[in-house]
Specification:
The protein has helices at residues 4-43, 50-70, 74-92, 96-99, 102-144, 151-172, 175-198, 221-231; strands at 203-208, 214-219. By secondary structure, the protein is mainly alpha-helical.
Length: 232
Amino acid sequence: MPDANLIRQRVEKHYNQRKEFIIHLIVFGIINGALWAIWALTRGLLGFPWALVVTLGWGSGLAAHFLEARSWSPGHLAAVDRAIDRQMNSIYGPDWRDDTEPEDYARVSAAVTKQFRQNNEFTIHLTIYVIINLLLVMLWFILSGGVGFPIPLVLMALWGAGLAAHGASNYFDSSRSVAARERAVQRALAAEYVTKKKKRQAEPHTISTPDGEQFEVIEDDWEKENRLTDAK
């Protein structure tokens, strides 16, 4: 579970992100309001709406800022913690708190947190993709009247390929994949332990019974170590 220092860092990060977003939003509203007012006064609500370029272009950055700030909210971080608990339960069973080491929790926590960060980055990528491509389509329609080759579709397709690659990368880093890899690691460690145990060099030694008879006993290194320890 997160310690007190981590919780404090999260809360401070959340408040800083929220403050920065609110400042960004206020500046966005003032500047864009002024630009639209200038456009309306100079063009009389006619002509090319150049203020729209600024609003949507800057708006994509504002939307990205909002999503980043939201990713540090208490509710979002609580969802991350719940996901970590589910992942630990999936890999190590319901008694994972008793059966695992802090290093196990730290490793799974890092993987789950990374997944959430990647998902948030993809959401930001998708949001910017939608807003910017909407802007390009609107500009093309305004400037060409909807006639001619739709150049924005080419840009949309090329950028969409990158967006699809981003989504595929996130899929392979999903919680299911992370859990599968962690279980594979545990199986590999268990198999390695069994293999090493079988490869131990066996050494014979002789013991005597109360009747004076002697028997040769084959023991592995672990048994030999215990026998020598008991003899001391």
